[in-house]
């Protein structure tokens, strides 16, 4: 397509296909290029179409040609001719102009630098560090061959020249990076070399500023962080530590003053603003004592500090220390002094806790508005990879010098080769880290600003995506790729620990080289075990012997230990694993299943280290481990009921039959709990699953007990039909793990039966059902609570339909009508259940709705409950049921809507809270946004309540105060490690929003 075509109306589509956004401006800019030569050929236009921002590239090119023409007559035409004739030059120049506004501005100021990109070797050759150093020293008039280079240019001229030269070299790198598929670690290494040469040139200028006094001290600049690790960003603070020694004959004090002045001036030269801008700040805050300490120290002073005062994170920082400027011999002496300290960091008490706390502090200080777009510090970001790699290096590098590389990707490769990271995990993490670093480079390159936040503006996101090579639906494609890599990093960050722990921790008998007991304890501590001595005892017990079982356990344990360490309580996980393993020592399928089915072993480790509730169920029946191979979705009441009935039919007597029914129930509770723990089952499905399991349990038990009572009484036929009405959370399909089963018992004499005999029979059946399901035993009891019946505990346990009808007609109170909103006759005789529903519907769904007095009564009762029912000492903010914004607030609000409107709104006639809330929203009774707040709040409170029970193995309506239990609850809810505060804050935020809606909906 020629520009003349582009200027025609039909050319607008062609420009759009090339990626132009402002078609009119694009046409004008393309036309303006013709002032310097013939119309751009199709090849040049195609190159424009592959730039990050064709509009910006074309506009910047016009400005560049104008600047070149102003600088030298004919300069614009020369540059234009090079563009047309040299496709490689065009690709590099336009690539830079489209991706970097800052470098485009530099080229406009210095158009002669554009021809740097005609260098045919630019795309294939990375300049050596010595060449970059020499170019930068020459820019300030210093001789690169001198042992102590000194600038010979006037100060202001030297400082400006350094900036111009730095940008010239940066331009060459950016052009190669953008257009020649340079590996991100190569680009980062070149940036670090460029920074080292800049520091050397700044030292040359600083020596002139200080004068002859500079010669009183030898001064070395040691790079830290990304510069030290040869993995610098395009724009970053350059972290350094200064070290000096007096020259022979100089006083220590004078040498210190001189070295401090040179160091201080070096930092200023790099960071101060001039007519040519700035370079980057030099940050010396990683030095001993940070900003409060002296800017430079002698070797002895550094050694004394690290020997006595340094913290674990300071040794971690030294992992990347590298002499880059000044006296290299002195810099190497510094490394020789401090390196031994690095490899003792993991020996410090609380090393793992301190490392985790440091990571937590970093996450907590991310501004909320940037948290989800933080590329460096956020969850699944660069720091997660770096933190994991460095932790593995510090823990294992003491004994293995092959994994001490300071560069993240090199260290990751070494760790993978050494077996510390699995091959697939290492490859995935390498790809994710390289992607994230490339994305970071492209973000910073645009304006050469220090930022790690992925933009959310469409224009910026589109430019960024195109700079990464996404041209088809660029923004969406980039976000999808980024989020995918984030998920992988987040997952692998939690997983990365030492894999072959066999000889290092368990001290397995054999000929292998083993760590000492002290080293094994250190390894367990580094993995997060609080009691490494006990952990080692468990490992020794599990791996002792030469049997096949011991051999398989020795194969399993290295992986299992890491999965336990990913849970909130690794010690408990290992201890429980030992107990399960001992219980199944005679079951050959157990260990082979764990060995051959990795998902089963991982699921088991997660359950054991997280949930006392699920572990208790498993310990009662260890063969439940087999279930981890199965689909963990809750089963239907019909399927479970059929199994219970079949199991019960093979038993002699009601007691044994009900025990068999409870065995099935226990196993299904384990299925539901594990599905919940693994995040496979939604909270609403958990409630439905537990309720259906209770349906099946009650139905099977009712059938068994009714037959048993009839047999005991010598009856050929049962004299009464029976039904069980689910109430409360059970009736609403919303049971939690710690819930009782609230019920009403209904009976109806069969035709011809004596009413008294029928009543006695029904009473005996109801009593036995409750007794047999609640009695202590190997299986969790099911408490069947009938206190919501008419007249409460003083009333008859079982009533006929007629008795219920008479009571509700004459005596029923508002709260009882409210309780009936969640009544659902689910067990027993179908006809009796239907008749009971027909009886209570007019009571709970009055045609004209509840009266104003009734509304006041409901509100008064709620206020009374709020004041009286909250347990003493409970925090009303964190009580999940009765606290402000808790479950009771939500459920009472929904129930009041039902009492007022269900008589005319058919969809409100449901015992389920979420279904009723949705119906109220669709009927216009609740604002959709308010309904969403209540629904989200209900789901969060219900999930949290379930999580508390899963962790503690007993019901709990309040968030635990114990730190470890609270962390375990957060883990069950899917929060990453060290996110307990985030969990609490999320709940408090949800409860506040719920309370605001409740004030409007319930209290008006």
From TrEMBL:
Entries under CDD domains matching the protein: NT_GlnE_GlnD_like (cd05401)
Cited Gene3D superfamilies: Beta Polymerase, domain 2 (3.30.460.10), Nucleotidyltransferases domain 2 (1.20.120.330)
Pfam families membership: GlnD_UR_UTase, GlnE
EC code: 2.7.7.89, 2.7.7.42
Domain named PII-uridylyltransferase/Glutamine-synthetase adenylyltransferase: residues: 356-497, 861-1002
Location of the region described as Adenylyl transferase in the Swiss-Prot/TrEMBL record: 509-1004
UniProt keyword annotations, A-Z: ATP-binding, Magnesium, Multifunctional enzyme, Nucleotide-binding, Nucleotidyltransferase, Transferase
Highest taxon of the lineage: Bacteria
Record carries keyword Transmembrane helix: no
Family: Belongs to the GlnE family.
Function statement: Involved in the regulation of glutamine synthetase GlnA, a key enzyme in the process to assimilate ammonia. When cellular nitrogen levels are high, the C-terminal adenylyl transferase (AT) inactivates GlnA by covalent transfer of an adenylyl group from ATP to specific tyrosine residue of GlnA, thus reducing its activity. Conversely, when nitrogen levels are low, the N-terminal adenylyl removase (AR) activates GlnA by removing the adenylyl group by phosphorolysis, increasing its activity.
The protein's name in its UniProt record: Bifunctional glutamine synthetase adenylyltransferase/adenylyl-removing enzyme
Upper taxonomic lineage: Bacteria, Bacillati, Actinomycetota, Actinomycetes, Propionibacteriales
Originating gene: glnE
